[in-house]
Amino acid sequence: MHDSVFVWNCRFPWLSTSAREQFSKYATYFSGFLFGVGWWLFIDGLVIAKNTPDFGIKIGFEDWVPGILATIGMIITNSIDMSLISDDNSFEYGGSRLASRVKLLLFIGIALIAGGIAGSFAILVIKYLGNETGKNVIYTGLTGVAQTILISISSFVLWLFNKSESSTEFNFVLQ
Amino acid sequence: MASPVNAIGFLLSILSCALFGNWLPFLSVVLFVFAPLPNSIFGRYTTNDVLEDAVSNVADIGRFLTSLILVSAFALPLMLLHVGTIEFFAAVMSISGGLLIYITMMTYSWLFTRERIEY
């Protein structure tokens, strides 16, 4: 059934069902915590940049792009129902090819998150590390990287511990 | 017992703004007051659809948004403190006052829901 998809099931047999339910609930809270911390770090960096008098670098829209990309990727990745990905009826005549479309959507989401991280690193290296004209420049550059990394960890937590078709295991699906 | 705690929370949060003449930390208290709202809205979702699962992902959206608003309520005074807009004690008083208000609200809602289930 899982021919083209690598599915890693991390079972926690020592956990009862109610404890697993609680664990999933607190994982969602923790994911929201990480997401909020990431965006607020970024806003803190922007406000610091605005309020430092000798800040040599102009803040533009390109600083916002990696975080927005990572957030869109997080929304796409976590909107996918994981039970659809192993729904492999695409070889039948007239099959809906739903699984392959879901895999394409998952790929786009993960690519958006990875692109956000790569973009934030690129902005840090090109824009901030090159010309350190004032103080707090490195801090503002690092908050962008911390933002995308925290958003990706938040997405990973939400994805790993969401409820899948069988609530007795946490599924981690890789393509 | 809970209403004096609530009053102390409001007193602390208003003092944190009024003593220093800067009313920006009050936004944190507004966030603390609105923090349980997504959980209470999304948590009551029920559907008439028989085919859909009883446990839905809608409650997870509520938990995510509640956690996001709580983190914002903590992070706003800390950001203002980091920039230097407000004093250290204003940030501490704002966060502790908002936290007292939030704890009171959660205690009340927990008591009332428990009573409703038990009758």
TrEMBL record, chain A:
Cross-referenced InterPro entries: UPF0220 (IPR007919)
UniProt keyword annotation of Cell division present: no
This protein's record includes keyword DNA-binding: no
Domain of life: Eukaryota
Pfam families assigned to the protein according to its UniProt record, in alphabetical order: UPF0220
Predominant localisation class: membrane
Keywords: Membrane, Transmembrane, Transmembrane helix
CC annotations in GO: membrane
Membrane topology: Multi-pass membrane protein
Transmembrane regions listed in the UniProt entry: 26-49, 64-84, 104-126, 138-161
Record's subcellular location: Membrane
Annotated family: Belongs to the UPF0220 family.
Name of the protein in its database record: Uncharacterized protein
Originating organism: Furculomyces boomerangus
From TrEMBL, chain B:
GO cellular component: Vps55/Vps68 complex
Organism encoding this protein: Furculomyces boomerangus
InterPro entries tied to this protein: Vps55/LEPROT
Primary location recorded for the protein, binned into one broad class: membrane
Membrane topology: Multi-pass membrane protein
GO biological process: late endosome to vacuole transport via multivesicular body sorting pathway
UniProt xrefs under PANTHER family: LEPTIN RECEPTOR-RELATED (PTHR12050), RH04491P (PTHR12050:SF0)
Domain of life where this protein originates: Eukaryota
This protein's name: Vacuolar protein sorting 55
Intracellular or extracellular location(s): Membrane
Keyword Ligase: no
Homology family: Belongs to the OB-RGRP/VPS55 family.
Keyword Membrane set for record: yes
Keyword entries, A-Z: Membrane, Transmembrane, Transmembrane helix
Pfam family, one: Vps55
Membrane spanning stretches: 7-35, 61-81, 88-111
